[in-house]
Amino acid sequence: MELVVHKFSGEATDRKVTLHDDVFGIEPNDHAIYLDTKQYLANQRQGTHKSKERNEVAGSTRKIKKQKGTGTARAGSIKSPLFVGGGRIFGPKPRDYSFKLNKKVKRLARKSALTYKAKDQQIIVLEDFSFEAPKTKNFAQILNSFKIEGAKSLFVMPKADQNIVLSSRNLQRTKVVTANSLNTYDILNANKLFVLESSLKTIEEILA
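RESULT FIELD:
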């Protein structure tokens, strides 16, 4: 598949790039996408949830009523889960939600996601650009040039550029990542994928 290279002003150049079929033209694997996305979201979870059990609740441990003769169920402590203010039965505990996923599966998932974007014509190749200073207005002009204001966009840079990152971080629905940190969730979550020309080579070297 061939794509026209655009300037960041939105104008098309007379140059074209060829997308590698081993990365952007494979048979997509939906289950690999599911597993990789599931792992990404699981890794975002802090897992710090916690509720107090009966041995952790503050309160008296005295027997609140006699064992027999009351006509009601026996009760040994006010901290019982059956009483208001008591401990919680089988409450959440801190845990790690992350799980292992093979590198080949993750690579297949990213290639599948990129293939879907290529088929849906949601990939735009941009000339390499940079800003002299952080300025949100300059980045917003790029979005306006492609008439995608309000849609989710992902910019894939060949390397970290602090000025571009700072220029984009105040814009909602816009994210900037480097080519070597590209993940399946970000690819699928974006309506438009802006790939800088130099980033294509890095992506293909990692995934091909």
